[in-house]
Structures are given as C-alpha cells and as structure tokens.
Amino acid sequence: MLLAPVRAATRVWVTPCACLLNRAIVPRYFFGSSSSSSSAICCFEERSASSLRGVRSASLPAARASRTSPTAARGSRHDPTPAGPTRVSTNRRLETRFLGDGQVLVYPAGNGESTAAVLARSELKEQFLAHIHSARLCRVLGFALALVVTESLVRQIFWRPLARDPDFAMIVLPGTRARWRIEGDGTSRWTVRGIRRPAPPALSVAPYLVLGDSYTEALMVDDEDVFTHRLERLSERDAFGAPVLNLGRSGASAADYVALAPRYRALFSPRWTIVQLGIDDLGDDAWKTDKPHFARRENGRLAAVAEFALPSRFWDLARPLRDHFTLANYGVIRFEEFLHAAAAEPPLFHAGNLTAEKPGPPPDPSVRYPVLAELELLAAAYDGRITFLMLPEFDLARPSEPRSETERLWLRTCAEHGWSCVNLRDVFPVFAARYESPFGFSNTAWNRGHMNAAGHRAAALLLHVEMLKLAARGLL
C-alpha cells in the first residue's frame, strides 16, 4: 500500500523522460509517414498510451475504411489519384485546420492518406504536448520528494540547530534534541544558555561548572555517557553533591574561559569550576583573533579579549534555512571542512623549490606561546577555585610518558602552585593493558578523534576522586 504512490510517481517521472529522449521517433510520428506510429506509441507510459490509442482509434474510422477499399480511396475527392492497381501518386497536398486563438496548423497529406489521418496526428500532438507539461510538473514534484527523503536521511546522521546567545555567541538551540553520527553515535539534549542537560538546572544549590571544547560538548556520545553526567551521578551520595553544568562549546580554548569568566560567575555562581584542556587549547587555538583570544597589552601583560566575529551577511540570510533544514546546515559544514582541508594540503609539485623538506610535526605550544602565563591567568579568573582536566594524546607503546613539553610544563606548574589538577594519562596504562584507547569510535579510526564512552567513564572517576580530596580539605 505504501509503495503504490511511489510506483505511480516513478512511472509518471521516468516515462516522459524516455519520450523526450526519443527525438528520432516522435517527430516522424507526428509529421512523417505513418509507418512509425506503432513504435512511437510505446514510448509513453501505460496510462498515457491507452489514452492516445483511444484518440487514434476514434479519429481514424475513415482512414481505415479507405485503406481497406483501394477502389474507394482512389479517385475520391480526398485523393486525386486515378484508379489503377499500379499507379501511385507522389503529389503531397496541404491540409489546413483552424485550432482557435488565431492558430492555424498546415499538414502535408501523404500518399493515399486522408484528411482524417492528418487530423488524428494533430490530436496526438496535442496529447503529447499536454503530456510534456505534466512531465515538467512531475519533475518539480520529484525534485521536492527527493529533498524530503534526503532531509529525513541526513537528520538521522546530523541534526544540531544553532541559536545566537547574547553572552556566548552561538550555542545549540535550547530545547533541541541533537543527533550526531558523523563520529560516534550520540543523542544530546540542550537547555538554556547552551547547557547540555535533559532539563533546565535548578540553581537553588550552587552548581559545579564544567568548561571545555568539543571534548566536553561530546556530541559523539549519549547524555548518560558524558563525564559530566557521570560525575553528577557519582557525587549524588556525597555531602558535596550538586548539579554539574556542562557548558562545553566546540572550538573553545583557554582564552574563552578567561575572557568569559565574569559572565559565567555572574550567571551561575559556581561553587567550583572544572576546566578541560588539551594541548592545542594553550597554543594556536587560544590566539585566533576571530573569537575570544589572548593578546599582549601595551605594557606587555597578557590579557584575554572577549571578541566574537560577527556572522557574515550570508550567514544571517541563510540562518532560517540552516535552522530548519539539516541538508543546508550539513552542506555548509562539509563545504567549510573541505576548504580547511584544501588549504592544509601540501603542494603537489616541488620543482621550483630545490630545498623542499618533508613537513614535520607542528612546534609545541610552549615554544611559541606563554603557556605558564596563560595557566596563571586562567586560575586567577576563578580565584583559584578551579580544577584542570588535561586530555593528552594516548600512546599504546608508552602510555605513562608525557609526549609534549606543554604537558610537562603544566604538571610542574600544578605542583608548584598547589592547583587541583587531573590528568587522564593516569589511567592510560589500564587502557594499554587491555589494548584499548579512550579515544576513537567504531565508525572512525582507532585512537583518533574525541573521547569515547570508556574515556568519559575514566574521566568521571578521576574527577570524583579529586572532588573527594577537595571536600576533605574543606574547599567544597
């Protein structure tokens, strides 16, 4: 029952296309000899063919009668050819028919062909033109149907509408149930101010504030698997239990957490703040000028600038389309990814550069940027009531050894200042013993990309242990 409309639409869509492509048959049928009439009819669909046959059979009684009686056809007023078994006239007369609206059709009368046959061809031509107009409508309807089907399929893979927030620029639209299957397979629910949570939080109790980038936003896993949700469930039985607010935003860095600290503290009044960091969050990503970034003042001191790049005019015009149609939103995202990938591609030819060398790994952020000053500025923005969660790279061969100088600098700074610091590397030997990784998913590469459910579970356990230590010191 459900496939019947689709089959009907397919017949109406495909068959007229075949007729349009058959340009060698249709003109001969309408304007040439009648020998190709039987082959021309077959290019129409079943319904149209039957209707055309009806017109043909109703319009040609005189023609059939004349063809069955040669002596009646010859010498009649329709055919000037004299009677005789061997004589065939080659003269072609013109038959005229008035169609109305000032239109006049002139047809050549063929050898031994009556006016009725010519008029029958004109009727077939009118039927054919009407069929062409219906085919155009079918193309439009078919295109619309293709968009609807593609939209429904893409929504099963990607759905994340965005909204503009006065304090935090672009956030996930509140009340949205987002879907992400590009990497991993996660369903997430979002509330006010871009908080990932099934329901708006009750702020009668001072919450824990968790800041981070796409690793904290964690669109790749379900709500129940994110480390913020697991931490809240683990601390429910403790005296320091409180709501844990996930304010992770894709693309955020250490500069965002410093520049937006006054807004976070004014809106949520957190009892404690957890900041998730990666190596890049203290490097290039924190110095990009199209979002909150670090900069040097005139006196040389480091400061965070809370500036958001204004969306382009095209973004504003396309916003309703992107908010309601996943196909448009996902298409723009994929196009931007293509541009970034194309810009990062190495040159195809090095003929003009005799000293070309193989590009090596990017330099460590501690070499180019004041990582120590960034960490101190970040801790001061929250009055020292902060826990750093570091997510380093996982190496199966050497799971316990820091690979980055920035990570080693962070560890030394935490020890010198007595900060609360949690390193996911502490559980890397457990993953290595099981030949597993806290990063990567079944639909991506192993140990590549964001944290999977096992990585989030390990991060939640480490943070809960740290919260117990802070509570024992009376800081919570």
Description:
- The protein is α/β, with parallel strands linked by helices and 476 residues long.
- The chain has two domains: 3-76 and 95-155, no CATH class; 160-343 and 363-472, SGNH hydrolase (Rossmann fold, 3-Layer(aba) Sandwich).
- It is built from 18 helices and 14 strands.
- The chain has helices at residues 3-21, 26-31, 37-41, 46-59, 61-68, 70-73, 115-155, 214-217, 227-234, 254-259, 261-268, 313-324, 326-344, 365-368, 371-381, 405-417, 428-433, 453-472, and strands at residues 93-100, 103-109, 158-159, 162-165, 169-172, 177-180, 186-189, 208-211, 244-246, 272-277, 293-296, 302-305, 386-390, 420-423.
- Strands 9-8-10-13-14 form a five-stranded parallel beta sheet, sandwiched between helices.
- A hairpin with a 5-residue loop joins strand 6 (177-180) and strand 7.
- Helix 1 packs across helix 7, helix 9 (227-234) crosses helix 18 (453-472) and helix 12 packs across helix 13 (326-344).
- The chain is elongated.
- 30% of the residues are buried.
List keywords for this structure.
476 residues; alpha/beta; Rossmann fold; five-stranded parallel β-sheet; 18 helices; disordered N terminus
Give a nutshell description of this structure.
With about 475 residues, the protein is of the alpha/beta class. It folds into two domains: about 140 residues, no CATH class; about 290 residues, SGNH hydrolase (Rossmann fold, 3-Layer(aba) Sandwich).
